[in-house]
Amino acid sequence: MLFVFPYNQExxxxxxxxxxxxxxxxxxxxxxxxGIESDLFPxxxxxxxxxxxxxxPIRYVLExxxxxxxxxxxxxxxxxxxEAP
Length: 85
Fold this sequence. Notes:
Low-confidence stretches: none
Mean pLDDT: 92
Helix content: under 10%
Largest sheet: 4 strands, antiparallel
Structural class: mainly beta
Number of strands: 4
């Protein structure tokens, strides 16, 4: 899932009601991955206590299946290219 924000910000994410573990890619306005959180597991509690923040203001957050970052060697500094269909 791709989250697009209208301006640079530091949103918080939590894992409430997630069904599967994921990797989070924090992406800036230029398409550079500025941080990755890997293998985040679902939080089954009623009030999640673990919040995830980007290391710097970002414009996009990409959620993918856990392990994608490792499998494809994606790391901070990698670039993302968005293409219109």
